[in-house]
Write a structure and sequence with these properties.
Shape: globular
Radius of gyration: 12 Å
Strand content: over 45%
Strand order of the largest sheet: 2-1-5-4-3
Oligomer: single chain
Largest sheet: 5 strands, antiparallel
Length: 68
């Protein structure tokens, strides 16, 4: 399994990192911010927001090709 860290852009989302664990992805998403919160969406992704509620990143989970 791979956790992808996506940054929303005006044209969709850009992958900024891939991680082996959720903890690694979450740590990367929080870097440089005093406060972040997460919101788990039923569609299967986690939204990482700053103190003002602005979306910083999305974390998604996908199955690796080798694991199929």
């Amino acid at each position: 399994m791979t956790y992808s860290l996506l940054q929303p852009t005006s044209q969709g989302a850009q992958t900024v990192g891939r991680f082996d664990t959720y903890a690694e992805a979450r740590t990367a998403a929080s870097e440089g911010h005093d406060y972040t919160a997460t919101e788990i969406h039923p569609a299967g992704y986690v939204e990482v927001e700053d103190a003002r509620g602005h979306t910083l990143y999305l974390i998604t989970l996908s199955q690796d090709e080798a694991g199929r």
